[in-house]
Amino acid sequence: MTDARREERIPAPEPRPGGGRWRVPSATAAVFLATGAVTAAQLAFPEVLEALRRDPGALASGE
Predict the structure, then answer these.
(1) Residue 31 to residue 37: CA distance in whole angstroms
(2) Is 33 helix (H, G, I), strand (E, B) or coil?
(3) How far apart are CA 50 and CA 41, in angstroms?
(4) Which helix or strand (DSSP H or E) is residue 59 part of?
């Protein structure tokens, strides 16, 4: 390999502070937790599913 080719290489990225820890974006975590809470609630209380169900007649009347 020539010296010119060695200079063209892209340097390796610097390691990020905090080591190799994996971080989840906070908005993603919030949506995941909210979805999990509603799912758990509908399994424990079946009336939650009915309350969140779409009602085409109500929607058509402007509700």
Answers:
(1) 10
(2) helix
(3) 12
(4) helix 56-60
Q: How confident is the model at residue 2 (pLDDT cuts 50, 70, 90)?
A: low
pTM: 0.50
Query: In the block, which residue shows the tokens 């502070």?
Result: 17
Tokens found for residue 16: 């990020």
Yes or no: say if 52 and 38 are a contact pair by the CB < 8 Å rule.
Answer: yes
Average pLDDT over residues 12-30: 80
Percent of the chain with pLDDT over 90: 32
Beta-carbon count within 10 A of 61 CB? 8
Contact predicate 32/38, CB 8 Å: no
